[in-house]
Amino acid sequence: MMRQVVMVLLVLEIMTVSAKVGTKCQDERQAVRSKGVFMPECDANGFYNKRQCYSRNRKCWCVNPETGQQLTKPNRMKINCP
Length: 82
Hints:
The chain is an alpha+beta fold. The chain has helices at about 1-20, 25-30, and strands spanning about 50-55, 60. Helices cover about 35% and strands about 10% of the residues.
């Protein structure tokens, strides 16, 4: 009986985790996490950080926080995004 209860709880937990929907930024991060390519930075609400940087080439650029669309050219100098 106890084993059945544990199995039911495990199945419910798996269903809950798989039902969670991420934001576009969070989904993109998950998709590239293990590929060794640029991984966007998300804020606490799941939106894109306005300033994105790629550590491999030390360049940063501004993006639209909702879509992640690049707004400025990548630049090695410090960049302030509105």
